[in-house]
Amino acid sequence: MSDVILNANRRKILLASAAAGATTVSPFAINFLSAQTPTIKIGFPVPLTGAFGVEAQDQVRAAELAIKEFNDAGGFNGRMAELVVRDDKLNPGEAATRTLELIEKDKVNFIVGSLSAAVQLSINNVTKDRKIIFNSISQSDAINEVKDFSKYTFHEALNPHMTAGAVGRYAFAKYGKKVVFLTADYAYGHEMVRGFQTAGKPMGIEVLADIRHPIGAADYSSFLPRIQALKPDVLCLCNFGRDLLNSVKQATDFGLKSTTKLVAPVLLYTSRVAGGAEAFDGVVGGTSYYWRLEDTVPSAKVLNDRYRKAYAGAVPSDYGALGYAGVKSVLTAVKNAGSVDTDKVIDAMRKLKYDFYKGAQYYRECDHQSVQSVLIVESKSKDMKDKNDVFNIVSVEAAGEARLRSCAELGHKA
Amino acid sequence: MDINLFLLQLVTGLALGSVFVLLALGLSLIFGMLTVVNFAHGAYFMVGASIGAYLYGLTGQFWLSVVIVPIAVGVMGLLTERFLVRPLYGRGIDYPLLLTFGLSYVLVECVRIVFGIDGLQMGTPASLRGAVNIGVGQFPLYRLFLIVATALIVVALWLVIEKTRFGLIIRAGARDPEIVRILGVDISKVWLIVFAIGTGIAGLSGILAAPIRAVNPEMGIPVLAESFVVTVIGGMGSLVGAVVAGLLVGVVYSLTSLYAPDYAEMSIFALMALVLLVRPQGLFGRAGLMS
Question: Which domain holds residue A361?
C-alpha cells in the first residue's frame, strides 16, 4: 500500500518538475507526447548478464541503430519506434516472465531477441500463446520444427543445420575425413554434431569419437591426450563462447594444431577478440556475419559505417548484426504493411526480400527461417589491418533452401 | 588402450591435480587454523587471475605477475580477516561462512566493474609455450611447469610450518588456541597472517591457472566447488590431505575421462561420497573439528 502512495508522490514530483522545466527533455515529456501518437514498441529480451553478456550488449547496440534509422527516416506515419530492453539472464524461466511482462505491462507490439537455444524456445512459447510476432536472433534447429513453430515465429539467425553443414562441407573436403567431436552436452552441441554428420555422411567422413563434456567446463586437458592419440584430420569443437575459448586454448597448448585442424561451427567475433590471436590462430569456423564482408557486399559497408559513426569506430559483431537485422525486418514489414496489426505484419514479413547487411535474404514460407549465406572464416594472427581485423573470409556458402532441412522433414505440410 | 596413452593421461591428471592442490592448501590452512570455511576462496582465485592477466597485458612480464599477485591478494585477505571475519570469532561456524559467501559476490561484482564482464586476455608466457615430448607423447610445457611450481610451493609451505618458529605457533594454535594464548602468543596476529597466506595462495593459483583457462569474473565459481570436494576428501584442515586428495582427484578425473568421459564430472563426487562413507572426517582429517 505504502508503495502505491510513494509512487503517486513520485509522480506528482515528476509532474511538477516537468511543468517547471518545460524546455528540458525529461522521459516524462516523451511519454506525454506518445499519448497522442503511440510509439511502436519492440520488446528485446537478451542475456545482458551471464556468460553471453558481451554478445547481448552488442545485440542491443546494433538494434538501437535499426531503431534510430527508422525514426530518422520519419518513422511510420510519424509514429516512432522504441526498443524496450530486458535482461533474460540466460534463463528460460526468467525470459518467459520478462516476455510476458513486456507484452502485458509494456504493451510491446513485437518481440525480437534471445541468445540461447533454450531461452528462445521459452520466449517463443509465450509469444505463440499471446499471438505476438517473435523474431529470434539466436541459433536453433528446434524452432523451425513443427512442434515449436507457429505463424508468429520468425527465425532471423542461422540454425545449426545450416552453420555446421556449411563448415563441415568446407572443412572435410579441405582437411580430411577422419573426424573427432568435442561436444558440450546440451541442445546446442547435439544439434551442431547432427549438422556436421548430415553434411559429412555423403562425403564419407569417419567419426573416430564424439566426446561429451559438461557445459561450462573449465579444463579440457583430460580429453586431449586421447584426441591426440586418435590423430584426427579435423577436430570439431561443438561448444560455445567461453567453452570454445577454453578448449581451443588448451588444445593449442597440447600441440594438437600440428596434426589436426581445429574447427568450430560458430566462431564468434567476440570470442576471438577475448581469446586473442595466439590461441585462435588457424581455427576455422562458421558465422552469420563478419565486418570484412564490406569488401564485397555494399550493404555490409553501409551498416559498418553507420555503426562506426554511432559507436566510436567499433564494428558490429555477428550477433550484433543479427540484432540489427531482426529489428529492421520487423520495422520494414510494418512500413510495407502500412499497419502494426500482427497479421498484416506477418504477411509483409513473409513477402519480404531484403538485403540489410549481408546480401539477399528472405523468410522461407513453411518455417519462417531466414534463408541466407553462411560465412566460413579462419582466425589469423598475421597481416591484420587493425585490431578488429581478426578473420579471413575463406569461403561463403550462398543462400539457398537446399541448405535447409526440407519442410517435410520438419513436419510442415507442403 | 596402449600404455603410453595411459601414462600421458596420468601426467595430465597430475597437472590438473596441481591446481586442485594449490586451491585446497589455502582453504585447508584457513580452516585448520581459524575454523573459518572460506566461501570467498574461488573469488580470490578469480581476483588473482584477473589482476595477474591485467598486469601481464600491461607489462608482458609473467614472472612479475607471479610475484605481485599473491602479495596483492594476500593484502586483501589481511583486510578481510581484520575487518570482516574477526568480529565474528566466537560465534557459530556459519557466521563467517555466510560472510565469505556474500563477500564472494561482492568481489565478482567489483571485478566486473573494474575489468569488465567479457574477461581478460591471457596468453601462455613465451618461455613456457608449446608442447614437449615427455617420452610417452607430447605434453604442454606450461602444465609441466605447473606440476613443478606446485611441488615447490608445497615444499616451501612445509618448511615454514615444520621448521620455523612461526610454523610451530601455527601448529600449536591449530591444536589449542587457548593454551597458545596463555603462553603469551598474540594468536589474533597469527590468525591474521594465516588468513593472508591462505588467500595469497588462492591468488597465486589464480595467476598460475590463468594461461590455461579463460579469465573472467565467473571463473571462480566452479573452482570453489572443486576445491571443497578436494578438502573434504583430504580432510578439512589437513595440509597433507590437501596435497594427496588434490592429486588423487586430478588423476581420477583424468582417467575417468579416458575410459568413460560422460562420467568424468561425476567421478570426483562419487569419490567424495565413497570417502565420506568409509572415513567421514576425510583421508587425513581429525574427527570433530566442525563441531
Answer: 39-158+300-371
